[in-house]
Amino acid sequence: MLFHYIRHGDPIYDPDSLTPLGERQAEAVGKRLALHGVDRVFCSTSNRAYLTSKPTCELLRLGEPTKLAFAEEGVAWRRLTADDDNGVHTWLFYSGKHVKLFTTPEVAALGFRWYEHPELTEFKEGMEAMYDDIDAFLLSLGYEHERYTGRYKIVKPNKERVALFAHQGFGIAFLSCLLDIPYPQFCTRFDICHTGITTIDFQEFDGFAVPKVLVHSSDAHLYKEGLPTKYNYGKTF
Prior knowledge:
Layout: E1 2-7, E2 11-13, E3 16-18, H1 20-36, E4 40-44, H2 47-59, E5 66-68, H3 73-79, E6 81-83, E7 89-91, H4 96-102, H5 105-110, H6 124-140, E8 143-146, E9 151-154, E10 161-166, H7 168-178, H8 183-187, E11 197-205, E12 208-218, H9 220-224
Parallel strand pairs: 1-10, 4-5, 4-10
Antiparallel strand pairs: 1-11, 2-3, 6-7, 8-9, 9-12, 11-12
């Protein structure tokens, strides 16, 4: 299986939609995915993710994407946010005090059980529930996660190209689970730009598969279409 994770385009959060730039980004990523083909498309239940997926579905004549409630950004927000040093409620990877804690030897030593650190126990229930949802989704695609080993038992061989359109905060947790990289290490070192494509090849070996990242948060389609490549409204790369 070749799996694409795509963040939604430049958003309008209220009402949930895309800006004109976001619409053009969605068209650009659709053209890119249509070049090599996609067999199945999923998206979160958020309208901005759905609208980003539409050009891909239309170009490939796939009909409507399958919506996944657990991939909606609000679910991840409730589970992986906290107040920062200034009292602003934000993602853990944007909170200075949490990033500092995430990069300590004590948290690193806990690995996948990072939420057993005395200052992080409030995130245990939410993180475990999120990982259960992600593993159930991957199992539906034919891969049973042998959690924390870095591999998957092949329950049903899958030669499809699959795309999931969703979000930044959810996507970081999703990829950390899929790739068996502890969340504190992943969220402090990797990010996802608008319509950035992360492509993962589930390489198969004698009954099991090991997911390998081919590209992470690639925005080559934006360059090709002459669109600006400002990351999160800030730096241009």
